[in-house]
Design a protein that fits this description.
It is a single chain. The chain has about 600 residues and is mainly α. It has 27 helices and 9 strands. The strands form 2 sheets. Strands 2, 3, 4, 7, 8 and 9 form a 6-stranded parallel beta sheet that branches. Strands 1-6-5 form a 3-stranded parallel beta sheet, covered by helices on one side. The longest helix is centred in the middle third of the chain and has 33 residues, at about 265-300. The protein is elongated and about 85 Å long.
């Protein structure tokens, strides 16, 4: 096999088309058709559907899908908020509802509906963005318990409202409620719940606390804009196709990412292969099952309605004893808001959850790794040069214990009689990522680290207006060789499609992490400390192949001596667990011989 046709282990040479545009358009088309079918079937309309009405429904569903596609491709929650608000305002405008009425509310209604796009403008002011995201920087959405708590209130409201309408024989209003729309929301939330609880890397969230805070902020804004639009339109049919398109597409992406996570795919190539298999499973198993469910309800519709009517009367009799009946009769409009709210939840929860657990945009526009080959008893320790080394450091003196530990480790773990290639793969080393600024100010130290056998990768400091291409050229000039790894870090700009695609064109592979280790305090390294327990659980789960990213979360004021202590203590933890720190290239070997 030639050098130009390298591939990840177990994958085809060209798994998917090189351009992601075809994949995105095909995905948008399928999601729009499925969402349109769910909506039209929900109406339970026996008449022939007119072409114009069908085209409008597909267009609304397509706008919902496209808003989700933009939110997934760009790893920035505020960009998703902008795309969602733009699509929804377009639908409201063309449907003739965007007429502000100051007599109804002092704040114009269009301003409420456009709140996610306003947040995007506010996010450009760094001080406000940092303040808001820090306040909400908790795992409010990316948490399985809170996910259930958020969804249970509107779900119960929908059930009680359905009982109210059914018990009063208001069938013309119930026809839409008893539909696949609610089922789509339930399935989507359940898929995301399974994705989070069964994720392969329990400590490998790709979002920082500020990113999570941004996701929470945008989610609340989107929900508020949807409820405001419901007040404006007073018609559930205006936004339902749009929200269904967003929910269905989010569910599809979450399902693909969760299956790939269960199979522990190594790299983009294997992710593509597993995704193709998952689509095949959908086509051969999920689609026939959905058809059987539809035929069941078509055939036994009367029996289902009779059972529902009986259950509704039981619920209402219980509500009468609690004096809740009058409230429900007067507040029946809350039912439609609850439906819209519930169908919106999978989208606002799913997009930050997908970004938190899987770099979908990286798999589309580049070649991304979050972990290496499991059960290898080898791991990768990844650090940023700026976090652990300074220009004035004498790394030979201050890091003497670290280098001695690595050298003795390598001699103890090298098997006698092994080939030279095998020894090279098992060579103990760190993975150090540098910026253009690091190369300009600390080139001698970086050259020294490279000569010691450590892997030198690239990262970008966007605050200094440096680009990956410029850093790549400067590094090639300093080290006299091309760097093959790009590390976006926790910077949201570095995780955008343009960054991944630039790395791909430069012949680089992108690297994220499977375990994020905060080393801002030395107390975490004590016996039974947080870091030790975290590393132990990660190693026990996969037996190797993990990428440990050591970071200080922006706190770089510690003395350089503390930096060497951090590395030494962390290496001791790995040694006690029987894991060898090696280059990331050793854990992601292309064209590796398959071993059963």
């Amino acid at each position: 096999m030639t050098k130009n046709s390298v591939r990840e282990r177990g994958t085809l040479n060209h798994t998917l088309p090189q351009s992601p545009v075809f994949i995105i358009l095909f995905f948008a088309l399928i999601s729009s058709v499925v969402a349109t079918y769910c909506y039209e079937y929900s109406l339970n309309n026996k008449d022939i559907i007119e072409y114009n009405d069908l085209a409008i429904t597909i267009l609304k569903s397509g706008l919902g899908v496209l808003s989700v596609v933009v939110g997934i491709i760009y790893a920035d929650p505020f960009v998703y908020g902008l795309s969602f608000a733009t699509a929804m305002l377009s639908i409201l405008t063309f449907s003739g509802h965007m007429i502000p009425d100051p007599m109804v509310c002092p704040v114009p209604m269009w301003l409420k509906c456009a709140s996610p796009s306003i947040l995007y403008i506010v996010s450009k002011i760094s001080i406000l963005r940092t303040a808001v995201c820090s306040l909400l920087g908790t795992k409010l959405i990316v948490n399985h318990i809170n996910l259930l708590l958020i969804s249970i209130i509107p779900f119960l409201s929908i059930l009680v409202g359905c009982c109210n309408f059914i018990a009063n024989n208001e069938k013309e209003q119930v026809q839409f409620i008893l539909t696949p729309s609610i089922l789509a929301g339930v399935i989507s939330l359940y898929v995301m719940y399974l994705f989070y609880t069964n994720r392969g890397h329990k400590h490998g969230g790709l979002f920082t606390s500020k990113d999570i805070g941004a996701g929470v902020t945008v989610a609340l804004s989107v929900l508020y804009s949807v409820l405001s639009s419901a007040d404006l339109t007073q018609d559930i049919n205006v936004l339902m196709p749009f929200l269904l398109g967003a929910a269905v597409s989010t569910c599809f992406v979450a399902a693909l990412a969760s299956v790939a996570d269960v199979w522990h795919t190594v790299g983009t190539g294997q992710f593509h292969m597993v995704s193709i298999d998952t689509v095949g499973i959908f086509f051969y198993f999920a689609l026939p099952f959905a058809i059987l469910v539809q035929r069941f309800f078509d055939k036994y519709n009367e029996g289902v309605n009779d059972f529902t009517f009986y259950a509704a009367n039981l619920v209402l009799n219980g509500l009468k004893s609690g004096n809740f009946e009058t409230f429900l009769m007067n507040k029946s409009d809350y039912l439609f808001k609850s439906i819209l709210f519930f169908v919106t939840l999978p989208t606002v929860i799913g997009i930050p959850l997908i970004h938190y657990l899987c770099p979908i945009n990286g798999h589309l526009f580049g070649r991304v790794y979050t972990h290496g080959i499991p059960n290898s008893k080898k791991v990768a320790v990844c650090i940023k040069f700026a976090d652990f080394f300074k220009e004035s450091n004498d790394i030979g003196k201050e890091y003497e214990k670290v280098w001695q530990s690595l050298q003795s480790w390598g001699s103890n773990n090298t098997t006698r009689g092994s080939s030279r290639k095998k020894k090279e793969e098992d060579k103990v080393s760190l993975n150090i990522f540098i910026t253009k600024k690091d190369l300009e100010h600390s080139s001698e130290i970086i050259i020294q680290l490279a000569k010691m056998g450590h892997t030198i990768g690239l990262t970008v400091d966007h605050k200094n207006s440096s680009t990956l291409k410029d850093t790549f050229e400067v590094c090639k000039g300093v080290l006299k060789e091309k760097s093959v790894w790009y590390f976006p870090g926790s910077d949201s700009i570095g995780k955008r499609p343009a960054s991944y695609h630039t790395a791909f064109k430069l012949g680089m592979r992108s690297l994220l992490w499977s375990c994020l280790v905060d080393v801002s305090s030395s107390r975490s390294f004590t016996e039974g400390g947080n870091v030790q327990e975290m590393v132990k659980k990660e190693v026990e789960a996969h037996g190797g192949g993990s990428f440990f990213y050591l970071t200080k979360e922006g706190n770089t004021k510690q003395e350089s001596q503390f930096n060497s202590v951090i590395l030494f203590d962390f290496l001791k933890i790995l040694e006690s667990l029987g894991q060898t720190p090696v280059s990331v290239s050793s854990l992601t070997i292309e064209d590796q011989e398959m071993k059963l």
